[in-house]
C-alpha cells in the first residue's frame, strides 16, 4: 500500500492516506473495545466465583447442620428409648441412612463446585506417582476384594496435582467397586501420547490419553453419555454404595484441563475409560 501511495497522483495519495488513518483508528477502537470486553468478562468471572464461594459456605454449614441434628438425635433415641419396637428402630435406621446419604451428596456437590473455585495452577505431575498414591489409599479395598491394580509406565504432564489424584481415584475405585460376583476385580492403567493435535490447538501441543480398564460388570453402551451426569446411577443403593457424582467430577476435571473423557463398555465384559489431556497447559487454561 505504501508503494501505491507514493506512485499515486497527489489527490489520490491524500485520499489513500486518509483512508489508512481511518482504518488505523477503527482498529485501535476495536482493540480498545475488545480489551474492555475482556476486562468486563474477568470481572463477571470473579463475581461468579465469589457467589459460588458463598453458596459453598451456605451449603457446608446451613444445609448440613439439620442433617447432623437428625443423625445425632437418632443416635440418642436408639440408645435411650428401650420401649421402641423393632419396627420403630428400623424406621430410625432408615432415617439415619437417608440423612447420611444426603450429607454425602451435599459434600460431593461441594467437591464438584470446588473443581473451578479452588483449582490450583498447573505444574508437572508424574502420573506414575499419582497412581501409586491412589493404590495406597485403596489398598484395603484391593485386599478385601482380592483384586489387582496393574499400572503401565505413565508420563509426566502439566496439571493440577490434587485434581489428577481425584480423577484417577474415582476411575480406579469404580473398577474395584463394580466387580462381578465371585470374580476378583482387575484394574489396568496405561497411557499413550497422541501426536495428532486437537482441532484449534497449536501444533506443539501433544495430548496424552490415559486408559483405565476393568473386568467388572460393565453396562449397555447406549448409557455411555448418561453416566457422566450429576447423581446418575445405573445401580441401586442396595447393590453399590456411592452418590453417583464421581464420574461427573471426572468429566469436569478433564474439561477444566482442556481435555475430555469417554467410555466403552458392554454388560459382563468390563469397562474402559479414556481420558485425553494436553501434555502442556495453555496460559489461559492455567488461570481457570
From TrEMBL:
InterPro entries: BphY/WalK/GraS-like (IPR050351), HATPase_C_sf (IPR036890), HATPase_dom (IPR003594), His_kinase_dom (IPR005467), HisK_dim/P_dom (IPR003661), HisK_dim/P_sf (IPR036097), Sig_transdc_His_kin-like_C (IPR004358). SUPFAM superfamilies: ATPase domain of HSP90 chaperone/DNA topoisomerase II/histidine kinase, Homodimeric domain of signal transducing histidine kinase. One of its GO terms (biological process) is osmosensory signaling via phosphorelay pathway. Residues 13-51 form a coiled coil. GO terms for molecular function: phosphorelay response regulator activity; phosphorelay sensor kinase activity; protein kinase activator activity. It is an enzyme of class 2 (transferase). Residues 58-281 form the Histidine kinase domain. Its EC number is 2.7.13.3. It catalyses: ATP + protein L-histidine = ADP + protein N-phospho-L-histidine. The keyword Lipid metabolism does not apply. Transmembrane segments: none annotated. Keywords: Coiled coil, Kinase, Phosphoprotein, Transferase. This is histidine kinase.
Amino acid at each position: 500500500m505504501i508503494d501505491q501511495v507514493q506512485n499515486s497522483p497527489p489527490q489520490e495519495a491524500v485520499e489513500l492516506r486518509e483512508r489508512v488513518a481511518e482504518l488505523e483508528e477503527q482498529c485501535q477502537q476495536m482493540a480498545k473495545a475488545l480489551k474492555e470486553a475482556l476486562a468486563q468478562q474477568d470481572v463477571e468471572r470473579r463475581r461468579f466465583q465469589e457467589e459460588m464461594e458463598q453458596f459453598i459456605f451456605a451449603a457446608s454449614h446451613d444445609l448440613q447442620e439439620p442433617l447432623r441434628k437428625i443423625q445425632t438425635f437418632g443416635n440418642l433415641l436408639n440408645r435411650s428409648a428401650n420401649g421402641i419396637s423393632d419396627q420403630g428402630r428400623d424406621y430410625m435406621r432408615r432415617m439415619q441412612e437417608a440423612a447420611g446419604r444426603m450429607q454425602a451428596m451435599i459434600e460431593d456437590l461441594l467437591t464438584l463446585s470446588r473443581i473451578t473455585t479452588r483449582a490450583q495452577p498447573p505444574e508437572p505431575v508424574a502420573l506414575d506417582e499419582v497412581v501409586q498414591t491412589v493404590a495406597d489409599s485403596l489398598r484395603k479395598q484391593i485386599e478385601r476384594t482380592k483384586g489387582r491394580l496393574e499400572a503401565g509406565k505413565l508420563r509426566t504432564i502439566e496439571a493440577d496435582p490434587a485434581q489428577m489424584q481425584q480423577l484417577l481415584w474415582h476411575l480406579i475405585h469404580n473398577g474395584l467397586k463394580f466387580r462381578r460376583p465371585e470374580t476378583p476385580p482387575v484394574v489396568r492403567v496405561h497411557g499413550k501420547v497422541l501426536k495428532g493435535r486437537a482441532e484449534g490447538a497449536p501444533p506443539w501441543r501433544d495430548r496424552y490419553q490415559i486408559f483405565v480398564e476393568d473386568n467388572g460388570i460393565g453396562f449397555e453402551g447406549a448409557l455411555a453419555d448418561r453416566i457422566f451426569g450429576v447423581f446418575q446411577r445405573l445401580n441401586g443403593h442396595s447393590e453399590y454404595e456411592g452418590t453417583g457424582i464421581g464420574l461427573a467430577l471426572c468429566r469436569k476435571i478433564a474439561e477444566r484441563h482442556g481435555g475430555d473423557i469417554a467410555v466403552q463398555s458392554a454388560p459382563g465384559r468390563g469397562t474402559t475409560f479414556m481420558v485425553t489431556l494436553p501434555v502442556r497447559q495453555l496460559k489461559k487454561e492455567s488461570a481457570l
